[in-house]
Amino acid sequence: MSKQILILGGGYGGLLSALTARKYFSIADAAITVVNRFPTHQIITELHRLAAGSIAEKAVSLPLDKLLRDKGVNLVIDTVEQIKPDEKKVVLQSGVTYSYDALVVALGSETAFFGIPGLQEYSFILKSVNDANRIRAHVEACLDAYKVSKNKADATIVVGGGGLTGIELVGEFADKLPELCRSKGIDFNDISLYCVEAAPSVLMGFPQELIDRAVSSLSKRGVEFITNVAITEMTKTAVTLKDGRTIETNTLVWTGGVQGNSVVANCGIEVNRGRASVTETLQSTSHPDVFLAGDSAVVIPSEGARPYPPTAQLAWQMGETVGHNMFAYFNNAPMDSFTPVFSGTLGSLGRKDAIGMIGGKQTQLKGAPATFMKEASNVRYLSHIQGLFALAY
Ligand code: NAD
Protein backbone atom coordinates (compact mmCIF):
# COMPACT_ATOMS: atom_id res chain seq x y z
CA MET A 1 0.00 0.00 0.00
CA SER A 2 1.14 3.52 -0.79
CA LYS A 3 3.03 5.16 2.10
CA GLN A 4 2.23 8.67 3.27
CA ILE A 5 5.40 10.72 3.61
CA LEU A 6 4.86 14.13 5.19
CA ILE A 7 7.67 16.69 5.05
CA LEU A 8 7.44 19.74 7.30
CA GLY A 9 9.39 22.64 5.85
CA GLY A 10 10.28 23.67 2.31
CA GLY A 11 13.77 25.00 3.07
CA TYR A 12 17.05 23.30 2.25
CA GLY A 13 16.41 20.19 4.38
CA GLY A 14 12.75 19.75 3.44
CA LEU A 15 13.12 20.37 -0.29
CA LEU A 16 16.11 18.07 -0.63
CA SER A 17 14.36 15.33 1.40
CA ALA A 18 11.34 15.51 -0.90
CA LEU A 19 13.31 15.45 -4.15
CA THR A 20 15.67 12.73 -2.98
CA ALA A 21 12.81 10.58 -1.64
CA ARG A 22 11.10 10.90 -5.02
CA LYS A 23 14.21 9.53 -6.71
CA TYR A 24 13.73 6.31 -4.74
CA PHE A 25 9.95 5.98 -4.28
CA SER A 26 7.71 5.58 -7.32
CA ILE A 27 4.42 7.50 -7.33
CA ALA A 28 2.63 4.22 -6.55
CA ASP A 29 4.94 3.49 -3.60
CA ALA A 30 4.52 6.76 -1.74
CA ALA A 31 2.58 10.01 -1.65
CA ILE A 32 5.00 12.81 -0.71
CA THR A 33 3.61 16.05 0.73
CA VAL A 34 5.62 19.14 1.64
CA VAL A 35 4.10 21.65 4.06
CA ASN A 36 5.63 25.12 4.09
CA ARG A 37 4.42 28.37 5.64
CA PHE A 38 5.57 30.38 2.62
CA PRO A 39 4.84 29.59 -1.03
CA THR A 40 8.56 29.96 -1.77
CA HIS A 41 11.84 28.13 -1.23
CA GLN A 42 14.01 30.87 0.26
CA ILE A 43 17.75 31.13 -0.32
CA ILE A 44 18.44 32.31 3.22
CA THR A 45 22.20 32.49 2.67
CA GLU A 46 21.55 35.57 0.49
CA LEU A 47 18.98 37.37 2.65
CA HIS A 48 21.50 40.03 3.75
CA ARG A 49 21.63 41.20 0.15
CA LEU A 50 17.86 41.56 -0.05
CA ALA A 51 17.79 43.40 3.30
CA ALA A 52 20.26 45.99 2.03
CA GLY A 53 18.50 46.29 -1.32
CA SER A 54 21.37 44.89 -3.40
CA ILE A 55 19.28 42.19 -5.10
CA ALA A 56 15.66 41.64 -6.08
CA GLU A 57 13.33 39.43 -4.08
CA LYS A 58 12.92 36.95 -6.93
CA ALA A 59 16.64 36.09 -6.72
CA VAL A 60 16.17 34.57 -3.25
CA SER A 61 12.54 33.50 -3.34
CA LEU A 62 11.83 30.58 -5.66
CA PRO A 63 8.15 29.61 -6.06
CA LEU A 64 7.75 26.09 -4.66
CA ASP A 65 4.79 25.31 -6.92
CA LYS A 66 6.96 25.99 -9.95
CA LEU A 67 9.88 24.02 -8.53
CA LEU A 68 7.69 21.03 -7.68
CA ARG A 69 5.37 21.11 -10.70
CA ASP A 70 5.09 17.65 -12.31
CA LYS A 71 7.50 16.18 -9.77
CA GLY A 72 4.99 14.00 -7.92
CA VAL A 73 5.28 16.03 -4.71
CA ASN A 74 2.18 17.65 -3.19
CA LEU A 75 2.56 21.14 -1.79
CA VAL A 76 0.54 22.58 1.10
CA ILE A 77 1.02 26.23 2.10
CA ASP A 78 0.19 26.34 5.78
CA THR A 79 1.89 26.70 9.16
CA VAL A 80 2.60 23.68 11.33
CA GLU A 81 0.88 24.18 14.66
CA GLN A 82 1.37 20.85 16.40
CA ILE A 83 3.22 17.60 15.80
CA LYS A 84 1.67 14.58 17.57
CA PRO A 85 4.34 11.88 17.11
CA ASP A 86 2.55 9.26 19.24
CA GLU A 87 -0.57 9.56 17.07
CA LYS A 88 1.43 10.00 13.81
CA LYS A 89 -0.46 13.20 13.10
CA VAL A 90 0.37 16.83 12.33
CA VAL A 91 -2.09 19.69 12.90
CA LEU A 92 -1.83 22.77 10.69
CA GLN A 93 -2.91 26.33 11.49
CA SER A 94 -5.86 26.04 9.08
CA GLY A 95 -7.20 23.24 11.29
CA VAL A 96 -6.42 20.47 8.80
CA THR A 97 -4.79 17.34 10.28
CA TYR A 98 -2.46 15.10 8.29
CA SER A 99 -1.53 11.50 9.14
CA TYR A 100 1.77 10.00 8.11
CA ASP A 101 3.70 6.76 7.87
CA ALA A 102 7.01 8.66 7.93
CA LEU A 103 7.52 12.27 8.92
CA VAL A 104 10.40 14.58 8.03
CA VAL A 105 10.80 17.53 10.38
CA ALA A 106 12.78 20.27 8.63
CA LEU A 107 11.36 23.40 10.23
CA GLY A 108 14.65 25.23 10.71
CA SER A 109 15.63 27.35 13.67
CA GLU A 110 14.34 30.51 15.36
CA THR A 111 16.09 33.66 16.48
CA ALA A 112 17.22 33.48 20.11
CA PHE A 113 16.53 36.66 22.09
CA PHE A 114 18.04 35.34 25.37
CA GLY A 115 15.36 37.21 27.39
CA ILE A 116 17.05 40.57 26.69
CA PRO A 117 14.44 43.26 27.50
CA GLY A 118 12.84 44.94 24.48
CA LEU A 119 14.75 42.90 21.91
CA GLN A 120 11.92 40.76 20.60
CA GLU A 121 9.60 43.77 20.55
CA TYR A 122 11.82 46.38 18.90
CA SER A 123 14.55 44.68 16.92
CA PHE A 124 14.45 43.38 13.35
CA ILE A 125 15.54 39.84 12.57
CA LEU A 126 16.82 38.24 9.37
CA LYS A 127 15.32 34.77 9.00
CA SER A 128 13.05 35.10 5.97
CA VAL A 129 12.35 37.10 2.83
CA ASN A 130 9.63 39.00 4.71
CA ASP A 131 12.14 39.92 7.43
CA ALA A 132 14.62 41.15 4.82
CA ASN A 133 11.94 43.22 3.05
CA ARG A 134 10.91 44.71 6.40
CA ILE A 135 14.51 45.78 7.13
CA ARG A 136 14.97 47.35 3.72
CA ALA A 137 11.68 49.29 3.90
CA HIS A 138 12.41 50.45 7.45
CA VAL A 139 15.93 51.68 6.67
CA GLU A 140 14.63 53.62 3.66
CA ALA A 141 11.84 55.14 5.78
CA CYS A 142 14.37 56.14 8.47
CA LEU A 143 16.59 57.83 5.88
CA ASP A 144 13.57 59.69 4.47
CA ALA A 145 12.64 60.75 8.00
CA TYR A 146 16.23 61.85 8.70
CA LYS A 147 16.17 64.29 5.79
CA VAL A 148 13.42 66.17 7.58
CA SER A 149 14.10 65.49 11.27
CA LYS A 150 17.93 65.37 11.38
CA ASN A 151 17.28 63.01 14.29
CA LYS A 152 20.43 60.89 14.88
CA ALA A 153 18.34 57.80 15.72
CA ASP A 154 17.06 57.82 12.13
CA ALA A 155 20.62 57.85 10.75
CA THR A 156 22.01 55.09 12.98
CA ILE A 157 21.90 51.38 12.18
CA VAL A 158 23.07 48.83 14.72
CA VAL A 159 23.69 45.20 13.88
CA GLY A 160 23.64 43.15 17.10
CA GLY A 161 25.94 40.14 16.90
CA GLY A 162 29.15 39.70 14.92
CA GLY A 163 28.72 36.11 13.76
CA LEU A 164 28.52 35.38 10.03
CA THR A 165 24.94 36.67 9.74
CA GLY A 166 25.82 40.00 11.36
CA ILE A 167 29.05 40.46 9.43
CA GLU A 168 27.50 39.64 6.06
CA LEU A 169 24.66 42.07 6.75
CA VAL A 170 26.87 44.92 7.93
CA GLY A 171 29.10 44.40 4.87
CA GLU A 172 26.15 44.71 2.55
CA PHE A 173 24.92 47.85 4.32
CA ALA A 174 28.42 49.34 4.11
CA ASP A 175 28.32 48.93 0.33
CA LYS A 176 24.74 49.93 -0.28
CA LEU A 177 24.15 52.85 2.11
CA PRO A 178 26.44 55.39 0.38
CA GLU A 179 24.52 54.82 -2.87
CA LEU A 180 21.16 54.99 -1.09
CA CYS A 181 22.14 58.19 0.75
CA ARG A 182 23.28 59.80 -2.49
CA SER A 183 19.95 58.96 -4.14
CA LYS A 184 18.13 60.65 -1.24
CA GLY A 185 20.39 63.68 -1.00
CA ILE A 186 21.83 62.68 2.40
CA ASP A 187 25.51 62.96 3.32
CA PHE A 188 26.75 59.40 4.05
CA ASN A 189 29.05 60.92 6.71
CA ASP A 190 25.90 61.58 8.77
CA ILE A 191 25.21 57.83 8.96
CA SER A 192 26.49 55.63 11.81
CA LEU A 193 26.73 51.91 11.16
CA TYR A 194 27.65 49.78 14.19
CA CYS A 195 28.32 46.11 14.74
CA VAL A 196 28.08 45.24 18.44
CA GLU A 197 29.54 41.90 19.56
CA ALA A 198 29.51 40.53 23.12
CA ALA A 199 32.54 38.29 22.62
CA PRO A 200 36.11 39.67 22.56
CA SER A 201 36.07 39.58 18.76
CA VAL A 202 33.69 39.23 15.86
CA LEU A 203 33.72 35.93 13.94
CA MET A 204 34.93 33.94 16.94
CA GLY A 205 36.41 30.63 15.80
CA PHE A 206 37.78 32.08 12.56
CA PRO A 207 41.57 32.32 12.10
CA GLN A 208 42.87 35.68 13.37
CA GLU A 209 44.10 36.66 9.92
CA LEU A 210 40.59 36.42 8.48
CA ILE A 211 39.07 38.28 11.43
CA ASP A 212 41.60 41.09 10.94
CA ARG A 213 40.82 41.18 7.24
CA ALA A 214 37.06 41.41 7.89
CA VAL A 215 37.44 44.16 10.49
CA SER A 216 39.81 46.26 8.40
CA SER A 217 37.78 45.83 5.19
CA LEU A 218 34.55 46.85 6.91
CA SER A 219 36.08 49.63 9.05
CA LYS A 220 37.44 51.26 5.89
CA ARG A 221 33.88 51.41 4.56
CA GLY A 222 32.53 53.08 7.71
CA VAL A 223 31.55 50.23 10.05
CA GLU A 224 32.21 50.95 13.74
CA PHE A 225 32.87 47.81 15.78
CA ILE A 226 32.09 47.60 19.48
CA THR A 227 33.37 44.28 20.85
CA ASN A 228 33.47 42.65 24.25
CA VAL A 229 30.26 44.44 25.21
CA ALA A 230 26.83 42.81 25.17
CA ILE A 231 23.59 44.48 24.20
CA THR A 232 21.47 44.43 27.35
CA GLU A 233 18.32 46.30 26.36
CA MET A 234 16.47 47.76 23.40
CA THR A 235 13.79 50.44 23.45
CA LYS A 236 12.03 51.93 20.42
CA THR A 237 14.76 54.55 20.06
CA ALA A 238 17.90 53.25 21.79
CA VAL A 239 20.15 50.26 22.40
CA THR A 240 21.77 49.93 25.82
CA LEU A 241 25.12 48.19 26.24
CA LYS A 242 26.47 46.32 29.25
CA ASP A 243 29.05 49.02 29.98
CA GLY A 244 26.25 51.58 30.37
CA ARG A 245 26.63 53.19 26.95
CA THR A 246 23.49 53.99 24.99
CA ILE A 247 23.26 54.22 21.21
CA GLU A 248 20.32 56.24 19.95
CA THR A 249 18.84 54.28 17.06
CA ASN A 250 15.55 53.32 15.51
CA THR A 251 17.15 50.33 13.79
CA LEU A 252 18.66 47.34 15.54
CA VAL A 253 18.96 44.19 13.47
CA TRP A 254 19.45 41.33 15.92
CA THR A 255 21.66 38.47 14.69
CA GLY A 256 22.80 37.36 18.14
CA GLY A 257 22.03 33.66 17.82
CA VAL A 258 19.63 30.90 16.88
CA GLN A 259 17.72 28.27 18.83
CA GLY A 260 15.65 25.19 18.03
CA ASN A 261 12.19 25.53 16.55
CA SER A 262 9.61 25.78 19.36
CA VAL A 263 7.07 23.51 17.60
CA VAL A 264 9.73 20.77 17.56
CA ALA A 265 10.99 21.49 21.07
CA ASN A 266 7.52 21.01 22.56
CA CYS A 267 6.10 18.14 20.49
CA GLY A 268 7.16 15.19 22.61
CA ILE A 269 10.08 13.82 20.61
CA GLU A 270 13.39 13.65 22.47
CA VAL A 271 15.22 16.98 22.33
CA ASN A 272 18.56 18.40 23.42
CA ARG A 273 18.29 22.11 24.29
CA GLY A 274 15.26 22.50 22.06
CA ARG A 275 16.65 20.68 19.02
CA ALA A 276 15.67 17.12 18.15
CA SER A 277 18.12 14.39 19.17
CA VAL A 278 18.89 12.08 16.26
CA THR A 279 20.55 8.76 15.57
CA GLU A 280 23.37 8.59 13.05
CA THR A 281 20.73 7.76 10.44
CA LEU A 282 18.93 11.04 11.25
CA GLN A 283 15.93 9.42 12.92
CA SER A 284 14.49 10.83 16.12
CA THR A 285 16.03 8.96 19.07
CA SER A 286 12.54 8.52 20.53
CA HIS A 287 10.44 8.06 17.36
CA PRO A 288 12.12 6.11 14.51
CA ASP A 289 9.38 7.05 12.01
CA VAL A 290 10.34 10.72 12.45
CA PHE A 291 13.35 11.84 10.37
CA LEU A 292 15.13 15.15 10.86
CA ALA A 293 16.86 17.49 8.41
CA GLY A 294 18.46 20.87 9.05
CA ASP A 295 18.56 23.16 12.08
CA SER A 296 15.58 21.50 13.83
CA ALA A 297 17.97 18.69 14.80
CA VAL A 298 21.18 18.61 16.76
CA VAL A 299 23.73 16.24 15.24
CA ILE A 300 26.57 15.28 17.54
CA PRO A 301 29.27 13.48 15.53
CA SER A 302 30.61 11.43 18.44
CA GLU A 303 30.12 11.25 22.17
CA GLY A 304 31.37 14.39 23.90
CA ALA A 305 32.04 16.20 20.59
CA ARG A 306 30.55 19.58 19.71
CA PRO A 307 27.40 19.47 17.57
CA TYR A 308 27.67 20.30 13.90
CA PRO A 309 26.84 23.97 13.20
CA PRO A 310 23.38 24.85 11.88
CA THR A 311 24.25 25.67 8.27
CA ALA A 312 22.55 25.48 4.90
CA GLN A 313 25.15 23.08 3.49
CA LEU A 314 24.46 20.57 6.28
CA ALA A 315 20.68 20.96 5.95
CA TRP A 316 21.00 20.16 2.26
CA GLN A 317 23.12 17.05 2.94
CA MET A 318 20.85 15.90 5.78
CA GLY A 319 17.86 16.20 3.42
CA GLU A 320 19.52 13.90 0.92
CA THR A 321 20.42 11.32 3.57
CA VAL A 322 16.86 11.41 4.94
CA GLY A 323 15.35 11.05 1.43
CA HIS A 324 17.24 7.79 0.97
CA ASN A 325 16.86 6.53 4.53
CA MET A 326 13.06 6.69 4.44
CA PHE A 327 13.14 4.36 1.43
CA ALA A 328 15.50 2.00 3.27
CA TYR A 329 13.29 2.19 6.39
CA PHE A 330 10.19 0.99 4.55
CA ASN A 331 12.13 -1.70 2.67
CA ASN A 332 14.09 -3.06 5.64
CA ALA A 333 17.28 -2.15 3.80
CA PRO A 334 20.43 -0.70 5.39
CA MET A 335 20.23 3.03 6.03
CA ASP A 336 23.08 5.48 5.46
CA SER A 337 24.87 7.06 8.40
CA PHE A 338 25.03 10.81 8.06
CA THR A 339 28.60 11.65 7.08
CA PRO A 340 28.71 15.31 6.08
CA VAL A 341 31.19 16.72 3.62
CA PHE A 342 32.39 20.15 4.73
CA SER A 343 33.13 22.10 1.60
CA GLY A 344 34.15 25.13 3.64
CA THR A 345 32.81 28.34 5.15
CA LEU A 346 32.54 31.51 3.13
CA GLY A 347 31.36 34.86 4.38
CA SER A 348 30.79 37.91 2.22
CA LEU A 349 31.99 41.33 3.36
CA GLY A 350 29.89 43.19 0.81
CA ARG A 351 29.74 42.93 -2.93
CA LYS A 352 33.46 42.89 -3.67
CA ASP A 353 35.09 41.31 -0.64
CA ALA A 354 34.76 38.06 1.27
CA ILE A 355 36.65 35.67 3.52
CA GLY A 356 36.57 31.93 3.65
CA MET A 357 38.12 28.66 4.72
CA ILE A 358 38.14 25.51 2.67
CA GLY A 359 39.41 22.11 3.75
CA GLY A 360 38.92 22.87 7.47
CA LYS A 361 40.99 25.91 8.37
CA GLN A 362 43.87 24.86 6.12
CA THR A 363 43.14 27.02 3.09
CA GLN A 364 42.18 30.58 3.80
CA LEU A 365 40.65 32.78 1.13
CA LYS A 366 40.36 36.57 1.04
CA GLY A 367 39.08 39.08 -1.48
CA ALA A 368 38.23 38.14 -5.06
CA PRO A 369 38.83 34.35 -4.78
CA ALA A 370 36.56 34.18 -1.71
CA THR A 371 33.91 36.35 -3.41
CA PHE A 372 34.07 34.11 -6.45
CA MET A 373 33.80 30.94 -4.34
CA LYS A 374 30.81 32.37 -2.46
CA GLU A 375 29.02 33.19 -5.73
CA ALA A 376 29.96 29.78 -7.10
CA SER A 377 28.56 27.96 -4.06
CA ASN A 378 25.22 29.72 -4.54
CA VAL A 379 25.14 28.83 -8.23
CA ARG A 380 26.16 25.28 -7.37
CA TYR A 381 23.20 24.92 -5.01
CA LEU A 382 20.73 26.34 -7.53
CA SER A 383 22.00 24.08 -10.29
CA HIS A 384 21.95 21.12 -7.90
CA ILE A 385 18.27 21.55 -7.11
CA GLN A 386 17.50 22.12 -10.78
CA GLY A 387 19.40 18.91 -11.53
CA LEU A 388 17.31 17.08 -9.00
CA PHE A 389 14.14 18.52 -10.49
CA ALA A 390 15.20 17.14 -13.83
CA LEU A 391 15.81 13.75 -12.23
CA ALA A 392 12.57 13.63 -10.28
CA TYR A 393 9.52 12.50 -12.20
P1 NAD B 1 26.04 33.01 15.73
O1 NAD B 1 25.50 32.35 16.95
O2 NAD B 1 27.08 32.34 14.96
O3 NAD B 1 26.57 34.48 16.10
C1 NAD B 1 25.88 35.31 17.00
C2 NAD B 1 26.85 36.31 17.59
O4 NAD B 1 26.12 37.20 18.42
C3 NAD B 1 27.92 35.66 18.45
O5 NAD B 1 29.18 36.11 18.04
C4 NAD B 1 27.55 36.11 19.85
O6 NAD B 1 28.70 36.30 20.69
C5 NAD B 1 26.86 37.45 19.59
N1 NAD B 1 25.97 37.85 20.68
C6 NAD B 1 25.18 37.04 21.42
N2 NAD B 1 24.53 37.77 22.38
C7 NAD B 1 24.92 39.06 22.20
C8 NAD B 1 24.59 40.29 22.87
N3 NAD B 1 23.73 40.34 23.90
N4 NAD B 1 25.16 41.43 22.42
C9 NAD B 1 26.03 41.41 21.37
N5 NAD B 1 26.38 40.27 20.73
C10 NAD B 1 25.83 39.11 21.13
O7 NAD B 1 24.72 33.30 14.83
P2 NAD B 1 24.67 33.56 13.26
O8 NAD B 1 25.69 34.52 12.84
O9 NAD B 1 23.24 33.87 12.97
O10 NAD B 1 25.03 32.14 12.64
C11 NAD B 1 24.22 30.98 12.93
C12 NAD B 1 24.81 29.77 12.19
O11 NAD B 1 24.62 29.95 10.80
C13 NAD B 1 26.31 29.61 12.43
O12 NAD B 1 26.59 28.25 12.47
C14 NAD B 1 26.92 30.25 11.20
O13 NAD B 1 28.18 29.72 10.89
C15 NAD B 1 25.87 29.92 10.14
N6 NAD B 1 25.91 30.94 9.07
C16 NAD B 1 26.71 30.68 8.01
C17 NAD B 1 26.82 31.63 7.00
C18 NAD B 1 27.73 31.33 5.84
O14 NAD B 1 28.21 30.20 5.73
N7 NAD B 1 28.03 32.30 5.00
C19 NAD B 1 26.11 32.83 7.07
C20 NAD B 1 25.28 33.06 8.17
C21 NAD B 1 25.20 32.09 9.17
How do the helices and strands line up, and which of them pair or pack?
Layout: E1 3-8, H1 12-24, E2 30-36, E3 40-42, H2 47-52, E4 61-63, H3 64-68, E5 73-77, E6 80-84, E7 89-92, E8 97-99, E9 102-105, E10 109-111, H4 119-122, H5 129-149, E11 156-160, H6 164-184, E12 192-197, H7 208-220, E13 223-227, E14 231-234, E15 238-241, E16 246-248, E17 251-254, E18 258-260, H8 262-265, E19 271-272, E20 275-277, E21 290-292, E22 297-298, H9 312-330, E23 345-348, E24 354-358, E25 363-366, H10 368-391
Parallel strand pairs: 1-2, 1-9, 2-5, 9-21, 11-12, 11-17, 12-13, 20-22
Antiparallel strand pairs: 3-4, 6-7, 7-8, 10-18, 14-15, 15-16, 19-20, 23-24, 24-25
This protein binds nicotinamide-adenine-dinucleotide.
In short:
This is NAD(P)/FAD-dependent oxidoreductase. Keywords: FAD, Flavoprotein, Oxidoreductase. The protein is of the alpha/beta class.
Task: Give a structural overview.
It comes from Paenibacillus thalictri. Residues 4-319 form the FAD/NAD(P)-binding domain. This is NAD(P)/FAD-dependent oxidoreductase. The protein is α/β, with parallel strands linked by helices and 393 residues long. It has two domains: 3-37 and 78-111 and 258-341, FAD/NAD(P)-binding domain; 113-256 and 344-393, FAD/NAD(P)-binding domain (3-Layer(bba) Sandwich), CATH 3.50.50. It is built from ten helices and 25 strands. The protein has helices at 12-24, 47-52, 64-68, 119-122, 129-149, 164-184, 208-220, 262-265, 312-330, 368-391, and strands at residues 3-8, 30-36, 40-42, 61-63, 73-77, 80-84, 89-92, 97-99, 102-105, 109-111, 156-160, 192-197, 223-227, 231-234, 238-241, 246-248, 251-254, 258-260, 271-272, 275-277, 290-292, 297-298, 345-348, 354-358, 363-366. The chain has a five-stranded parallel β-sheet with strand order 5-2-1-9-21. A four-stranded parallel β-sheet has the order 13-12-11-17. It has a three-stranded antiparallel β-sheet with strand order 6-7-8, with no helix packed on it. Helix 1 (12-24) packs parallel to helix 9 (312-330). The model is unreliable at 389-393 (pLDDT under 50). Bound molecules: nicotinamide-adenine-dinucleotide. Residues 45, 116, 160-166, 168, 196-199, 204, 230-231, 255-258, 309-311, 345-347 line the site of nicotinamide-adenine-dinucleotide.
